[in-house]
Records
---
Amino acid sequence: MSVSAAHSYIMPTYSPQPISFSRGEGSWLYTADNTPYLDALTGIAVCGLGHCHPQVTEAIQQQAATLVHTSNLFQIEWQEKAAEALCTAAGMDSVFFANSGAEANEAALKMARLYGHNKGYTHPKVIVMERSFHGRTLLSVSATANPKAREGFFTLDDDFIRVPFGDIEAIKKAATEHQQITAVLLEPIQGEGGLNTAKDGFSYLEQVQAVCDQNDWLFMLDEVQTGNGRTGQYFAHQHSSAKPDVLTTAKGLGNGFPIGACMVRGRARDLFQVGSHGSTYGGTPLGSRVVHTVYTLLSQTDIMQNAVIEGDYIQNNLTDELKSLGVSTRGYGMMIGVVLPEATDCSTLVDEARRTEQLIINVTGSHVVRLLPPLNLARSESDQLIERLSRLIKNKLA
């Protein structure tokens, strides 16, 4: 069922599909007439525990009936609990809570500039990656590679140095060609850019950290999409021995509740002081309790192990079904890219998946189907996902 209106009061920043969902449960979304859709997108990697997880729902209901907001002018017990849990999971020292991934990345980029200020720099620069995406606030969109996202906003392009993702030599070269570099910011896996992984895998992160250490730069990781169990580790960089100075996350952090986080250690640990940054809503009692609940579920159950098992199962079976058509897969855990032949017209594929297969997917990087199912996807649901997507792609490439 779609929402029809002669005039919408919503700014046209999106072009939504002509369908509206009235409820969700686990891996499924339902329209008002109770038609089920298998959700392999989870709100773009947000509902990692599935829709309306009973323990998350209970935490929201209980806290909403107790205390929602006080502001950060007061100590917040649940914020302290959530901060300790998240920093423990990440191996970080402290956290600033924001409301989104873009805000978390904005905080990280402000830190990079402050780090340069403390060094006496007049024009600090940050190395970022081609095909990256970091958000839509002014600093984060300036760091983002997509020119369409930056167009018309007088972005701060001179403050960023773009290098190919996965190319450590390009970072080393930038160190010799540019002055006043303060940090490197990258995603362990590029989500919006097409589910791109470095050719050296996660060891690339260790290589980047080594260059940062050598040059006294901040090593900053954007795990807005890859964090919170999405790849089978709590954070994707934990597939390696790399340890960032700054780590951002959001999306799955609140399983649908809007909250983001910017964590620090090492060189970044003492950059922010009283008055350096702030957020009226960041780390409310309600949001913080949700974060703590998600942490408890991820750390005390086998959900992340399930993400690895089912993710591998999905990739292996899709490869077997589709390799003869020139289709391949890549990714980790429940962050999967199904790579179609480059010439494939994918402009209608998302709509066709919804209409013909009752399947919710996304296409990124022009010809990569992005799958971001719940981490706790059941085997029977994995089988349905494989069957529906295989049929869709075979019909498209026939």
---
Amino acid sequence: VHGKGSLLGKMPGDRWQQLANLRAYYGFMWAHPGSKLLFMGGEFAQATEWDHDGELDWALAAQPGHAGVARAIADLNRLLHDIPALRHGNRSEEGFEWSVGDDHVNSVLAFIRHEVTGRAGALLAVSNFTPVARHGYRVGVPRAGRWREVFNSDSRFYGGSDAGNHGQVEAEWIAMHGHAQSIVLTLPPLSTIYLQVVE
């Protein structure tokens, strides 16, 4: 890894934006199929490159923004364990469906994770990779009803600005992205949110 730097160091903007970008990226990564891997220190956004001859900057882990990244990683790991759609179907086409993969104007990506046995609900992951909030952003969903926000990388608990969707949104019968219904979202700046259909 020599000379490559840390993930935090690769993020643009000031330190707040770098931490927000990193939380958004981790949320995006955790929702994708497959195993998750971080270098030591990545779980609290270590600013320096990992060094096998040195130790981690544990003092940094106590700073609020970095502690927020650690809390986000802990919650993402818990969600990975608790939500079947995030861990089942990793090797199946039926487990992953792109919703928005081409919105370069807004820098938004969205996809649905399906639990392939059909016993549990789908999960929608939406990422906004700009420092601008997106209000009224419509995304197609596979099920009608309420969709509960189960993760928001912009939560103040993680060091974010706490913008979001007041915990849940209701699907409307407006077709979008190949689905008969859709939801309208507020996408916080530099964020990833997860929504899960309420069974």
